[in-house]
Design brief:
Length: 187
């Protein structure tokens, strides 16, 4: 965190080239989060660029007490929610994920892909506010306090959203699995 603050100070003093260090350091994590939020490769790439641009333009608003990555997540989740509100996108589209098969049988590869598809569909079916909180907790492994700061919500609201997201996911899995697939294959 200290290193990030030193880089930000250098950028503020006019050395804009060093901002590339922050981009290199956080681009993969930010892209992964945005990909899971949108479910679309191109949209996640575009939003990643937009987040870094917006962060650069607003470096004067960054507080050194915050983790820089948390600040980027906050900007990213707000952009996703804005896009969703304007376009109603990202609501139910499944993740477009490439499947890598490593010495698996075709049956195992199919079941693995089916499991990912079910999980992806169910996560994408969550409302944006639930999806953001859930992904920050379980894929980015952030604390409730960090999520609360990123989403600018009270901690109890974050806990409630994550609880409701898990409840909706369980119900969605149960409904989807009643269609013939074995539920034990999911977990």
């Amino acid at each position: 965190m200290q290193d990030d603050w030193l880089i930000i100070q250098q950028v503020r003093e006019g050395d804009r080239e060093v901002y590339a260090h922050l981009v290199d350091k956080y681009k993969d994590k930010l892209y992964g989060f945005l990909y899971r939020m949108t479910g679309q490769t191109q949209d996640a790439q575009d939003l990643t660029q937009e987040v870094f641009f917006k962060a650069f333009c607003q470096l004067d608003k960054y507080r050194p007490t915050d983790a820089f990555l948390a600040w980027l997540y906050r900007i990213g989740s707000n952009l996703c929610i804005d896009v969703w509100r304007k376009n109603k996108r990202y609501s139910r589209e499944p993740l477009e994920e490439a499947m890598l098969i490593e010495n698996n049988t075709p049956e195992k590869a199919y079941l693995k892909k089916e499991k990912k598809d079910v999980i992806g569909r169910q996560i994408m079916a969550l409302g944006e506010e639930y999806r953001a909180a859930f992904l920050l907790k379980y894929t980015e492994q952030l604390s409730y306090k960090e999520i609360s700061e990123i989403l600018n919500l009270p901690m109890t609201t974050v806990q409630m959203r994550i609880h409701h997201a898990k409840k909706k996911l369980r119900a969605g899995f149960a409904h989807e699995m009643s269609g013939g697939a074995a539920i034990y294959e999911l977990f």
